[in-house]
Specification:
With 483 residues, this protein is an alpha/beta fold. It is built from 15 helices and 20 strands.
């Protein structure tokens, strides 16, 4: 559109007041993919007002009828999977095949929570007093503000809005300014599916301070769902405390990936490469951040890991065979590179990659050669901070007790992975790792059917599973005096 992509408020496609827009660029080549309406205070107020006005009717709709609409959304996303995946690659940069897998996974949240809508139940409590009856039930919490990041433009949206809508809540979504196009495309699908006006609103803006000041503190917003950095999450908590707004957060991570001597070698190797490099090029909160290898297997595992990383294809997302695309922006690439340089400065050895890729098809994008470092120690910044990019520090350990202690020595607690063929060790380690998601001989991440969230500074609440819809409800107790 000549005037830019419009945002979706109260069932209408609208421009920002004054026609303000911002550019969405392709991180692979710097081209402007689209101009998008740049919302401000008036649009925030309109979106929240619409969500508030639509909440009553939507929350009172029979749950199975809400579920039918969600299933329609799922079906339409399935039909338009490649179209959505193309948008993901254009604005995010990830390889097209990876984007297709993301969209396929993301639409599954509508299917799961469409069914869960019918299962939000209460209980009848045996009365301790004659003449009185007690029951407990759940009600939708109210209008929700959802704030999503750029690394999974489809999944992060559906993982929040599907349970909220299923529970009977209305939503104002603020997608990342780097990747708003996928969210807008999902909004078009919800419109076609028959979602009532005002129930789902998409506010596009790059004015993050305004969002914090006016959307997340709005008195009509009853809950905030946020995925992003721990630092930003803490700021939202402080603002939300003034009104005791309910929160659910998925924040940063520092995931250990542990390979024991008795690991099944090839699955452990493939899992380590995949969980470090093949999820948005490492730009994921659950990506392996520290790779711990037991000394007895290190001499075999580390060289094989290095060779596997050397074979990875870094390329623009639409190039056939691309496995790693560009990083999202120069700031992210510079941070990854600074962590690599700092590790080398403090004694680590860079054995492959670790430099900007600038030639040929890389010249205009934010490409980085996948890095592997050895002789890394726990006190280095690369082992302490969330890398959020294609750099793999390898650390060696001797005993099970030692690696559990080192793995847990972080303020984060989102995801952890380990490989062993010893069943008793599997149980021990899974129980002792202080993380919300633990992959035991598995590096595929979470799925719709299980709750996902972090320990410690990695988050609050859970998304997915039965717990996911409960996050969008309030518990009410009713006492009936029959006398």
């Amino acid at each position: 559109m000549a005037d830019g992509e419009r945002m979706y408020i109260n069932g209408e496609w609208v421009l920002a007041d004054g026609g303000a827009t911002f550019d969405v660029t392709n991180p692979a080549d710097g081209t402007v993919v689209a101009k998008v309406a740049n919302g401000a205070g008036p649009e925030i107020q309109r979106a929240v007002t619409a969500a508030h006005a639509s909440f009553s009717a939507w929350s009172q709709m029979v749950p199975k009828d809400r579920g039918r609409i969600l299933l329609k959304i799922q079906a339409l996303m399935e039909e338009r999977r490649d179209e959505l995946a193309r948008l993901v690659t254009l604005e995010n940069g990830k390889p097209f095949e990876e984007a297709r897998k993301e969209v396929q996974f993301s639409l599954g949240y509508f299917g799961w929570f469409a069914e869960e809508a019918r299962r939000v139940s209460g209980e009848w409590i045996p009365s301790p007093q004659p003449g009185k009856r007690y029951w407990v039930f759940r009600q939708p919490i109210g209008p929700v503000a959802a704030v999503t990041p750029w690394n999974f433009p489809a999944t992060m949206v559906t993982r929040k809005i599907a349970p909220a809508l299923a529970a009977g809540c209305s939503v104002v979504l603020k997608p990342a300014s780097a990747t708003p196009l996928t969210a807008l495309a999902i909004a078009r699908i919800t419109e076609v599916a028959g979602l009532p006006p005002g129930v789902f609103n998409v506010l596009t803006t790059n004015r993050s301070r305004l969002v914090g000041a006016q959307l997340l503190t709005h008195p009509l917003i009853r809950k905030i769902g946020f995925t992003g950095s721990t630092e930003v999450g803490k700021g939202i908590m402080q603002a939300a405390a003034k009104q005791v707004t309910r929160l659910s957060f998925e924040l940063g991570g520092n995931a250990p990936f542990i390979v024991f001597d008795d690991a099944d070698f090839q699955p452990a190797l493939e899992g380590a490469v995949a969980m470090k490099f093949l999820r948005v090029g490492g730009q994921s909160c659950i990506c392996a951040n520290r790779i711990y290898v037991q000394r007895g297997i290190a001499g075999r595992f580390v060289p094989a890991f290095i060779e596997a990383v050397k074979r990875l294809k870094v390329a623009p997302g639409f190039e056939p065979g691309a496995q790693i695309g560009p990083l999202i922006n120069e700031e992210t690439r510079a941070k990854v590179h600074s962590l690599v340089e700092d590790a080398v400065k403090h004694g680590a050895k860079l054995v492959t990659g670790g430099q900007y890729l600038n030639g040929d098809s890389y010249a205009k994008g934010f490409f980085y050669a996948p890095a592997v470092l050895v002789d890394v120690t726990d006190d280095m910044a690369i082992a302490q901070e969330e890398i959020f990019g294609p750099a793999a520090p390898i650390l060696v350990f001797d005993t099970e007790e030692e690696v559990i202690r080192r793995a847990n020595a972080t303020t984060y607690g989102l995801a952890a992975y380990f490989y062993t063929r010893d069943l008793t060790r599997l149980v021990r380690v899974a129980e002792q790792l202080e993380y919300g998601l633990v992959g035991a001989n598995d590096a595929t991440g979470y799925t719709h059917e299980i709750p996902f969230g972090g320990f410690k500074e990695s988050g609050l609440g859970r998304e997915g599973g039965h717990e996911g819809i409960a996050e969008y409800t309030e518990v009410k107790s009713v006492v009936v005096n029959l006398s």
